[in-house]
């Protein structure tokens, strides 16, 4: 069994399906689900995560993110699911909390598939618009390596077309680990 605590944490690179599949997994098991960005928003309201990050910087954002997730965990009495942000891999204190409190699942997807979604949905400010492929490749390689090293379970989602079918496949894999 992979779990070390009562939390199940979904991680992955931006647009890997973290929130989508965490929600489906939690709904199918009647577990409470939270998105780490929503926990941050509860602390920084009325501004957005992007506005906060832009105004206060990465280090300040990561501190708020780790504190928000830690406080959420402390308030839980039963099992729960948390969808982490794509940059959680860069937040050492957050990763320490997650590893101490539950099972870290890395939802891996092909770099090209994710890049296509980024092109469709909009290029985030931390990527170089003039050299998108190279800047995303560097980010992908670094974060993929970190997530693979930290994760209790790595699940390759592939180029999923049907979300329910992919969720069912993911759930079967996690059941093999006792989740």
Fold and architecture overview:
The protein has 179 residues and is α/β, with parallel strands linked by helices. It is 56% helix and 13% strand. Helix 1 crosses helix 7 and helix 3 (49-74) runs parallel beside helix 4 (92-101). The mean pLDDT is 91.
Let me know the number of strands. Answer: 5
Q: What assembly state would you assign to the polypeptide chains in this entry?
A: single chain
Percent of residues in β-strands: 5-15%
Helical content band:
55-70%
Number of helices: 7
Mean pLDDT level: 91
Which stretches are low in confidence, meaning pLDDT under 50 for 5 or more residues running?
Answer: none
Distance between the termini: 8 Å
Strand order of the largest sheet: 2-3-1-4-5
What string, H for helix and E for strand, traces the elements in order? EHEHHEHEHHEH
Shape: globular
Briefly note the structural class of the backbone: alpha/beta
Overall radius of gyration: 16 Å
Largest sheet entry:
5 strands, parallel
């Amino acid at each position: 069994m992979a779990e070390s605590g009562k939390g199940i944490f979904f991680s992955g690179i931006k647009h890997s399906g973290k929130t989508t599949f965490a929600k489906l997994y939690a709904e199918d098991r009647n577990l409470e689900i939270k998105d780490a960005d929503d926990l941050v928003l509860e602390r920084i309201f009325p501004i957005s995560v992007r506005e906060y990050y832009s105004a206060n910087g990465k280090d300040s954002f990561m501190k708020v993110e780790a504190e928000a997730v830690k406080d959420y965990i402390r308030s839980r009495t039963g099992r729960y699911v948390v969808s982490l942000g794509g940059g959680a891999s860069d937040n050492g204190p957050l990763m320490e909390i997650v590893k101490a409190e539950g099972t870290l699942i890395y939802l891996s997807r092909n770099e090209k598939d994710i890049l296509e979604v980024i092109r469709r949905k909009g290029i985030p400010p931390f990527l170089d618009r003039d050299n998108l492929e190279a800047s995303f490749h560097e980010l992908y390689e670094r974060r993929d390596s970190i997530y693979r090293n930290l994760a209790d379970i790595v699940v390759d989602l592939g180029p999923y077309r049907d979300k329910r079918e992919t969720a069912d496949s993911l759930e079967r894999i996690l059941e093999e680990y006792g989740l």
